[in-house]
Design a protein that fits this description.
Layout lengths: L1 E3 L5 E3 L7 H10 L1 H21 L4 E9 L10 H4 L8 H8 L2 H11 L3 E5 L6 H6 L19 E8 L8 E6 L4 E5 L5 E5 L3 E4 L4 E9 L5 E6 L2 H11 E5 L6 E8 L2 H59 L6 H28 L7 H26 L2 H35 L5 E9 L8 H26 L6 H5 L5 E6 L2 H7 L8 H4 L4 H16 L7 E6 L6 H14 L4 E5 L20 H5 L5 H4 E3 L5 E4 L8 H5 L2 H13 L2 E5 L8 H8 L2 E7 L5 H13 L6 E7 L23
Parallel strand pairs: 15-22, 16-20, 16-21, 17-19, 17-20, 21-22
Antiparallel strand pairs: 1-2, 3-13, 3-14, 4-11, 5-10, 6-7, 6-11, 7-8, 9-10, 12-13, 18-19
Helix pairs in contact: 2-12, 5-7, 5-8, 8-11, 9-10, 16-17
């Protein structure tokens, strides 16, 4: 089972769940507030989108190619080298100060020359060429089409990051206000400098009217690099593709393309330089080894020649030469098999047939080598020594020749090094700006506006303390005699300071009048056992509409054929006389209680038959004391004999004690509760105040019922209730 709390949100009896239907009803009731917030947010979003400078993006594609090692490695070791491009490393190299700093230096991105713009709307004024008068304080701000080109700028270190204000002259001249307050003059196309200050500037082009101002700034290298790094993004297009996509954003479409082209060229150059440096390092190493290899060949030749001279031996025999040749061939084949085995070891196990064939071939070669070595061992000592010296010479010659060949290869590689980076797509700027995205900004603004409006409606409903329904009043033990609908005519009349029309007479078909008729019927049956036929009408605080209820209730009762006496018993601020066009100084209740006027003198015929009115008269200084006099009780008895119903409009209970005094003498006391305005705490405070005075509240009337009303209530139960001003 659900119920409505004071804030209008629906919760179950345990307070654990929210009634979604009630929340939706609250949101629907506040749809105009939500729509207003949405429209305001949309206007703000569009204004923001159109006020932002467009941001353009240039992109380029690079390919990182697999690079083979410069020095030949054995097959077994080459498998340990990872030749795949390390894209993360390359991206960090691209974003490094080495690359970005070179771009900043090449394009002079540390120089800034921009027009001085109007605060807040300056960029909008330039972009949309909004008209700007050319006089007074508006003259320094450049117009659309006016520009400056800075060719050179040099400032002392203490001025780096400071603004220089350049003002265009009437011709090709200009003046510059320096950070120290001094002024320098110059001409377009000429270098203006001051060696003592360390200042130098050259303006290549200046297209602007007289008096236009531009701002010149020389950023630090670190700041320029940071700005460039924040505008740069790099990522790999597809995992493992080795394709890098570079993107640069800038407010200038052409500048974005220039910057990205310079960046790719700088990166390509360093990559080539890196490859050239590697080849240079390898060449240096090889060249350092060539003299030693050449010396080894010389020493081996000398050793062989010396031994031959000592042993008087010129050539080897044909048999010995054949053994030497076969041994060299077999050893070469063994080296080839070893290389093949290193390659097969990466793919197969030793039990694989292919691997077994290689092992068998190597075993046969080893057997043949052993046979040849044994034959060499059977040769005479002289021939064995010649064979060893000859093999040493051949090995030294082979190493020397390989080093010479490698040296030539590295020289060619150094001269033709192109690196392992290839530019696939050069930089190109997209046709349309990537920001601001007006559609997305508008969508976000609409969403935020709708959300803000909805949250405001829900919070406002949550904070509401006013009574929302008759069910809330009945839970306090009060009987609700009637619910009177909100009437715009009645509300406007109550706020008028002139004659007030009686709604029941002017518009008897109004829904509020139907509620008053229900109240009339409820009172008729509810007062059958009352001691008198008098009803006191009060409220918790001013503004609840008790006077409206009293006068219109009297009208509908009179229309039903009853004789009704309507008394304005609010001796402090009563205004019921306005409904009957009674002058302020006419004798009324105060004069009757003071013994200064008779009953017939204070009674005024109403606008319809059966309705009689008694005003307050002059506001007395002691209203409570007058009401405590015995003649007030006698007045109630006297009116009870002359009229079928007596209605007394009383002051608010929480303001004064008059309702307690009046309530003791009347047949019933009714409290008027203003829908969505009167807090539940005020109703409970009114009940306590009446109970303390020994008066029972017979029931309540829920006045001004309007489910669309969403005003926040007040929890202050103490009110000022001074005398009405004299012009009231």
């Amino acid at each position: 089972m659900t119920q409505n709390n004071a804030g209008g949100a629906a919760v179950n009896d345990d307070g654990d769940e929210i009634d979604i239907g009630a929340l939706l009803a609250q949101i629907w009731a506040g749809k105009y507030t939500i729509m207003l917030f949405t429209v305001i947010a949309a206007v703000i979003g569009l204004a923001f989108a159109f006020s932002r400078d467009p941001i353009y993006q240039a992109d380029a594609l690079l390919q990182l190619e697999t690079k083979a090692p410069s020095l030949a490695l054995p097959a077994g070791l080459s498998g340990l080298v990872d030749n795949d491009p390390v894209t993360v490393t390359e991206i960090e190299i691209i974003r490094s100060r080495m690359i970005l700093g070179q771009v900043v230096a090449d394009l002079h991105l540390d120089w800034v020359a921009v027009p001085r713009t109007l605060p807040l709307i300056g960029s909008v004024q330039l972009r949309y060429d909004l008209p700007l008068p050319d006089f007074g304080f508006l003259r320094p701000f450049p117009r659309l089409g006016e520009s400056i080109r800075l060719d050179y700028l040099e400032l002392p270190p203490e001025w780096v990051g400071e603004e220089l204000i350049l003002t265009a002259g009437s011709g090709a001249d200009y003046s510059v206000v320096l950070p120290d307050g001094s002024m320098m003059r110059g001409f377009v196309g000429e270098t203006a400098s001051d060696p003592t200050l360390g200042y130098s500037v050259r303006i290549g082009d200046l297209t602007a009217g007289t008096g236009r101002q531009f701002i010149l700034i020389q950023q630090s290298d670190a700041a320029a690099i940071d700005d460039l790094r924040s505008a740069l993004s790099a990522s790999e297009r597809g995992r493992g593709s080795a394709i890098l996509e570079l993107r640069i954003t800038n407010r200038d479409r052409e500048q974005a393309q220039r910057i990205l082209n310079a960046l790719t060229q700088s990166y390509l150059k360093q990559n080539i330089d890196r490859s050239t440096a590697e080849a240079e390092s390898s060449l240096t190493f090889v060249d350092d080894q060539i003299p030693a290899a050449e010396q080894a060949v010389t020493d081996a030749e000398a050793a062989l020649n010396n031994y031959r001279q000592q042993q008087q031996t010129i050539d080897l025999s044909l048999e010995t030469q054949g053994i030497l040749t076969q041994t060299s061939l077999l050893e070469g084949e063994m080296r080839e098999l070893a290389a093949q085995e290193d390659e097969l070891r990466q793919r197969y196990t030793p039990s694989h047939p292919t691997y077994r064939l290689l092992l068998d071939a190597r075993a046969r070669l080893e057997e043949r080598l052993e046979v040849l070595r044994s034959e060499v061992g059977e040769l005479p000592q002289t021939q064995r020594e010649i064979i060893n010296l000859t093999r040493t010479l051949e090995l030294a010659q082979e190493v020397y020749v390989q080093l010479l060949n490698r040296s030539q290869e590295l020289r060619v590689l150094r001269a033709s090094s192109i690196g392992n980076v290839r530019i696939i797509d050069t930089a190109r700027t997209a046709r349309f700006a990537i920001a601001p995205r007006k559609s997305i900004i508008l969508a976000i603004a609409l969403m935020l506006g709708t959300l803000s409006g909805t949250v405001l409606v829900l919070i406002r409903n949550w904070r509401r303390k006013g009574i929302q329904s008759s069910a809330e009043l009945e839970k306090t033990g009060l009987s609700v005699f009637a619910t009177i609908n909100y009437s715009s005519l009645g509300f406007a009349a109550r706020n008028s300071r002139s004659f007030l029309p009686i709604l029941a007479i002017k518009d008897p078909t109004d829904l509020a009048v139907e509620g008053l008729r229900s109240l009339r019927t409820s009172l008729h049956f509810g007062m059958l056992d009352a001691k008198t036929r008098s009803v006191a009408i009060t409220s918790t605080a001013p503004g609840a509409g008790k006077s409206f209820v009293a006068v219109n209730l009297g009208a509908v009762a009179a229309q039903s054929g009853q004789k009704v006496c309507l008394i304005d018993a609010d001796l402090r601020r009563g205004v019921m006389r306005r409904y009957f066009n009674v002058e302020k100084n006419r004798p009324g209740l105060a004069e009757y209680l003071a013994g200064q006027a008779t009953l017939d003198e204070v009674l005024v015929p109403g606008p319809i038959d059966g309705l009689t009115f008694m005003s307050t008269g002059r506001f007395p200084p002691n209203p409570s004391e007058l009401l405590l006099r015995p003649n007030f009780a006698a007045l109630i008895d006297l009116l009870d004999k002359r009229f079928d119903l007596t209605l007394l409009d009383c002051p608010p209970v929480l303001a004064v004690t008059d309702p307690v005094i009046i309530g003791r003498l009347t047949g019933a006391l009714i409290g008027v509760i203003q829908h969505d305005m009167t807090p539940m705490g005020e109703v409970q405070a009114m009940q306590r105040a009446l109970d303390a005075g020994g008066v029972r509240l017979a029931g309540a009337v829920l006045n001004g019922f309007d489910p669309r009303k969403v005003k926040a209530g007040s929890e202050n139960y103490s009110y000022r209730y001074d005398y009405k001003s004299k012009d009231a």
